[in-house]
Design brief:
Number of helices: 4
Number of strands: 0
Distance between the termini: 137 Å
Radius of gyration: 74 Å
Largest sheet: none
Order of helices and strands: HHHH
Oligomer: single chain
Strand content: under 5%
C-alpha cells in the first residue's frame, strides 16, 4: 500500500508542475487574448489533471480499502485457523499425555505381572525339586520297607517253622507227661507207698503241674 500511495503523490506533483509550466507566459510579445486563451487552456488542462489525480487517488483509496478488507479477512481466517490448530495441538498433547500415562501404567502392570510370574515359576520349580526329593525319599523308603517286609516275612516263616517244631515238641512232652501220669495213677504204685499214699499224691501233683505248664506253653506257641 505505501508504494502505490507514493506513486500517486509523485504523479500528482508531476502533473501540477507541468500545469504551472504551461500556464506561465512563454513570450512577452504575445497579445492579451492569446494569453488568456493559453491560461484558459492551461486551467482546463489543470482541471483535467486534477480530476484525473482525484480519480487516481479515489481508485487508490478504493484499492487500499479493498486490500485492507481482504487482508483483514485473510488475517481473521488465519487467526481462526491458528486457534483451531492450537486447539488441535492441545488436544493432541492431552491425548499424548494420557497415552503416555496409560503406557506407563501398562508397563508397570506388565512388570508386576512379569515379577509375579517369575516368582510363581521359581516357586513351582522349587516345589518340583521338593516333590522330586520327596519322591526319591518315598522310593527309598518303599524299597527299605519292601526289604524289611521281605526280611520280616522270612523271619515270620522261620518263626512259624520254629513254632511248629516247638508245638510238636510240646505235644510230645505233653503226651509223655500224660503217659507218665497215667502210669503213676495205677494202683500198684499206691500199694507200694508205705504212708497211706501221701507220697503218691505229691508225685501226682508234680505231674499235674508239669502238664499244666506244658499246656500253657503249647497255648502260647499257637497264638
Amino acid at each position: 500500500m505505501k508504494p502505490a500511495k507514493k506513486n500517486g503523490r509523485d504523479r500528482a506533483i508531476f502533473l501540477l508542475m507541468g500545469a504551472l509550466l504551461l500556464s506561465a507566459p512563454y513570450s512577452f510579445a504575445a497579445e492579451p487574448d492569446a494569453k488568456n486563451k493559453q491560461e484558459r487552456a492551461a486551467q482546463r488542462r489543470m482541471q483535467q489533471m486534477q480530476q484525473k489525480f482525484e480519480q487516481d487517488v479515489a481508485a487508490l483509496e478504493q484499492e487500499k480499502a479493498a486490500l485492507k478488507e481482504q487482508t483483514e479477512i485473510k488475517l481473521a481466517a488465519a487467526r481462526k485457523e491458528l486457534a483451531r490448530q492450537r486447539r488441535e495441538l492441545d488436544k493432541l498433547q492431552a491425548e499424548h499425555t494420557e497415552k503416555g500415562a496409560q503406557l506407563a501404567s501398562c508397563q508397570r502392570e506388565a512388570e508386576s505381572a512379569r515379577l509375579a510370574a517369575s516368582n510363581d515359576l521359581a516357586a513351582t520349580r522349587q516345589k518340583q525339586v521338593e516333590t522330586a526329593q520327596q519322591l526319591q525319599q518315598s522310593e527309598a523308603l518303599n524299597k527299605r520297607l519292601n526289604s524289611e517286609k521281605s526280611g520280616l516275612e522270612l523271619a515270620l516263616a522261620e518263626q512259624k517253622t520254629e513254632v511248629g517244631a516247638c508245638q510238636a515238641k510240646n505235644a510230645n512232652l505233653l503226651d509223655l507227661f500224660n503217659e507218665m501220669a497215667s502210669q503213676h495213677e495205677k494202683a500198684e504204685l499206691k500199694y507200694v507207698e508205705p504212708w497211706t499214699g501221701l507220697k503218691g499224691v505229691e508225685i501226682e501233683n508234680r505231674f499235674q503241674n508239669a502238664r499244666d505248664h506244658a499246656e500253657a506253653q503249647l497255648y502260647r506257641s499257637r497264638q
